[in-house]
């Protein structure tokens, strides 16, 4: 026999899973199934392959080459972050002179990329008037740092990597945006700026994310750097949406 | 008991197995190759190349004298303050009963009837992290549970942790924006499920001192209003806690993440001197009622590798070395966050299960009050069946405490730990009880029936916290 709980006030106060129904000491069937469904969404976000054709089609004439890391498959991707940071040979990137390279990377949530990445590009590029932007690269089995090698091959002074973040049970579709000045192999995390939790309507919206990114990017160009020092003096980041 | 200037004696270890000969460059290499498979050691490039090489290494390791570990450091004494702490604080007198044993002989002794709780307690200061890590590499899950069960480490502040037949919980009411109402809701939910007897511990979304102080006051205020025997902690950097201690904030426990090498601790921005200072400052407040343990540490296999500070040592041995750091500051609680760090360090439920039980045993053998965050991230090959299995085995092993969050879903840190209900269930399954002081309080407010069960009701003083 499952007893119903009287704790509506608690549930209204937080997105945390408070006031769950019990069966004896354990969780009720309904709660167990709700938790299993949330976990399944997060698992599928990690393991579903990105629909590359759909992303390229949505990018239209802004689309550049599709590249891969040196990772063979998802199992290796999860265990070898070092290989996910290195570009596979025969990538087809040609060197030019660009202010910015934008990389759309699958990361740990193909769903986040499919749902949000092109919309962020749409919102961002009009805010960068006069910039020379390289064709947008789509990167598979990719970690954030793969963008460094991609941008270096393209000859770009800065790289923006839009990547699927590690999915939570309540957030399987969260997109992160990482900005790196003078990208090259060996850059470390403290040399980047990050805007995370882009996932409207629960998280940051496209225009809000684009506004913060554009402000950071203009400041990065002015000061010729990204990372901890830029964060200290640059645009104030809005708190992650609760 | 100081042993300065200890020589770094190195020698090659060799054996033949199945017609192949295997050789291991030094103790560090031997320990790494003898470690049961885990992704972090493969990533670091230190793992055995084959299953046969692993067993060959275990076979050689079984014959290494325990005393050899006092002569060959895995991280050079001159370069690393954790090695110096381990060597300089080694208690030769406590070590005497097992001094003549090999690693394999020590495993047999640990399993023997002679090695009872009193013998193991007396032995702890005589053991080094590398000795216990080596021995655990020769153990199966059943051994890790059986030896841990008779090893007891009891600590106290306002509650007593680690007593036989008890399993305590950290109540972890995290919120992505440190919202007071949201945190209070999770705190209330946990208390109503009988959680929080180890600590009410919040991971703050920001390290801003004013926010951390507000969270400390929130929980301390609830404690006083409920007249409940709980201790609180906001898991911020030790330097922030030191600043708040100077301001007179209600700090029960000093928190810090620590690792098994000086370089990895530098990555955390912490030194042993800072820990000494914070330990002393918190001790002076005398906020305890039944004990005076005022530190809380978190560790996890893979943390030194992720900081690129592993010195070619396997992640389990480094984890045991982190407990030597903890041991120096009389902790109330030490928590190995076993599945949190991700599949590049522990790939799946099998690796997480073993690592959790290894950490628990190694910590307790060294005299450290171990708890475990039984958890996984969504990109690990693990699910709630795996956390159930680890919780049950830890319960059987006499684990001091585990982490609990509403529904097992931490909405701030984005990973899955245990739910309050998971612990209620395992307490009933294994006949375990909360910490005695907290158990008495639960009874006094009607949250514990005669069968030791937590009924579903809302006592008025707890309801009032939400007002």
From TrEMBL, chain A:
InterPro entries linked: EutC, EutC_C, EutC_N
Note describing how the cofactor binds: Binds between the large and small subunits.
Assembly behavior: The basic unit is a heterodimer which dimerizes to form tetramers. The heterotetramers trimerize; 6 large subunits form a core ring with 6 small subunits projecting outwards.
Pathway: Amine and polyamine degradation; ethanolamine degradation
Gene: eutC
Subcellular location: Bacterial microcompartment
EC number(s) given by UniProt: 4.3.1.7
Task performed by this protein: Catalyzes the deamination of various vicinal amino-alcohols to oxo compounds. Allows this organism to utilize ethanolamine as the sole source of nitrogen and carbon in the presence of external vitamin B12.
Keywords: Bacterial microcompartment, Cobalamin, Cobalt, Lyase
Class of the enzyme per the UniProt entry, highest EC level: lyase
Molecular function via GO: ethanolamine ammonia-lyase activity
Binding site for adenosylcob(III)alamin: 144, 165, 194
Protein name: Ethanolamine ammonia-lyase small subunit
Origin superkingdom: Bacteria
Cofactor(s) needed for function: adenosylcob(III)alamin
Catalytic activity: ethanolamine = acetaldehyde + NH4(+)
Family, as annotated: Belongs to the EutC family.
TrEMBL record, chain B:
Cofactors (names): adenosylcob(III)alamin
Predominant place of localization: other
Key words of the record: Bacterial microcompartment, Cobalamin, Cobalt, Lyase
Record-listed E.C. numbers: 4.3.1.7
Amino acids binding substrate: 170-172, 203, 298, 373
Ligand binding (adenosylcob(III)alamin): 204, 256, 306, 412
Pathway membership, UniProt: Amine and polyamine degradation; ethanolamine degradation
Cofactor note: Binds between the large and small subunits.
Protein's cellular compartments: Bacterial microcompartment
Root EC class: lyase
A Pfam family it matches: EutB
Annotated catalysed reactions: ethanolamine = acetaldehyde + NH4(+)
Keyword Thylakoid: no
Quaternary assembly: The basic unit is a heterodimer which dimerizes to form tetramers. The heterotetramers trimerize; 6 large subunits form a core ring with 6 small subunits projecting outwards.
Function: Catalyzes the deamination of various vicinal amino-alcohols to oxo compounds. Allows this organism to utilize ethanolamine as the sole source of nitrogen and carbon in the presence of vitamin B12.
HAMAP family associated with the record: EutB (MF_00861)
Record family assignment: Belongs to the EutB family.
UniProt protein name: Ethanolamine ammonia-lyase large subunit
Native species: Actinomycetospora lemnae
Gene that encodes the chain: eutB
